[in-house]
Amino acid sequence: MLKNLPKLGLLLVLATLCGAQQGSVQKEGSNWTNVVNGSLTGARTLRIRVQACAVRVEGGSAQGISYVVRNKSYETSEAKARRQFDSYKVSTSTRGDTAWIVGEWAVRHPHKFSLEVTVTVPRDIDVVKIETDGGGIVTTGISGRLEAESGGGAIHLDDIGGAISAETGGGAIDVGNVGSDLTVKTGGGTIRIGSAKGKVVAESGGGNLELVSGSQGASLETGAGSIHVNKCTGEVKASTDGGSIDLGDIKGGATLETGGGSLKISSASGPVKAETGGGTIELWGVPVAHVETGAGSVIAKFIASGGDRSDSVLETGVGDITVYLLPNVNLTVHASIEAATGHRILSDFPEIKVSSEGGQWDPKLITAEGNLNGGGPVLKVRTTMGNIYIRRVQ
Description:
- The chain has 2 helices and 37 strands.
- By secondary structure, the protein is mostly beta strands.
- It has a domain of 135 residues.
- The chain starts with 7 loop residues before the first helix and ends with a strand.
């Protein structure tokens, strides 16, 4: 990430914080510490590029930017610790309206060493950009835009007003309350998002994803973990190669896909598409649904739609299908069991007529057809091996 950093003397007028400007070396338990303080003024954008360093940026009431660089050495002697401190060059500058904090090793990064940069900025700063090749990132309390990238550390974000783009090679991502669009990605860690007022895009190579509240839709993807959404306004797209997906109250449509886990929606006001290689599917309040599972049961409760209704399909290879319908729903029902020996279709609606084909010992095809309240959009229900229940609910 940081291999292409510009040479410090070529692009920026830098004040190097080393040598005589370094703070004194102090013994702290069994460790040695070195702390450097400084400030930058007249900037609306902050850029931080550091190697092997944790970064914390906090918004405050101050007009300028202040920073503290805290180095810690785990060497046994002060002389060895000082050599390490001297090898890490931290430089700062202001160019136009952009403040820079740059840190890099003059030699190879030693093992017995850790660094942290803490920066306080005006809350109304326009842009903060952070790059670190391995440390964690924490940013809180700013109203502007944030771009953050870590080679593998954890990322924590909270109370940020502008759009956010954050990525880590493998650490966890934890987001509190944010006021605009949010895009986060991790190579394998978990992602948890509290509240986002903008659109959410979240991707993990294998960790679990959780969204407590979204206001403008969400696109969620993980390689192997589970996905949980408490509530979201707008369309939700969720996919995982093998975990389960559990959605709560969705004010919009939803598209769900998993290689083998279960799928569940508490309620959705828009159409639902759901597919799993082998898990169960539960829809407890949807207007329209197209769902399929290779080998699991399906439960679907249909509710009234505020707009035009369209056809629905419920299908499983092996498993029961249970449908809950309101008494006044306008639907045309087509239900079938392809290998129906030992299975049956049961309906609470007398308008739905059940018939069967095949001999006493042969696999039977059982079908059920009927128009409810004069008919309407088609509801197709099909299982290869399983029972079908069509229930009336109030």
